[in-house]
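#onboarding

Welcome to the new folks! Below is a worked example of what a typical request in this channel looks like: someone posts a single protein sequence, and someone else replies with the predicted structure as tokens. Don't worry about understanding the tokens yet, we'll cover that in week two.

Example request:
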Amino acid sequence: MMLRKNLNYNPTKFMQYDDIKRDFIKIRELVSTTLAKDVCCLEKKQYLYKLRLMPNLVDEKNWTEKENKIVQEHFEALEVLLEENKLIMAGRTQNFDASTFGIVILQVDSEEEARSLMEKDPAVAGNVMTAELFPYKVALYNHQFSNN
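Example response:
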């Protein structure tokens, strides 16, 4: 009896142990599920495709309503990829001459998926832009920047 008193013996603690064990198992399952999702994301690959205007479209006076509509569809397709968490970023140089280009950076499961998305890009499929695909990896990213 004296020993139990010195150890602060409490018979209800043994019942609490089962609760703690059950909670620990739940936490372990949650952590392993979360890690599995993270590993899944790590398996995705990144690709960059570089877009260039067709040579005849470098001169703005050659643009028609058709090209403007296709570029709008291109932008809308990129917005869908953003919603699907496949698009990391997209943008273009601000000059409008022979050196003008745009880039699209994707994170997808395979090169085949990246190539398919690139080829289905309305600007590419509509012959407004040519595209070239590259394996890519973002090394650093500053989360302080906005879309301005």
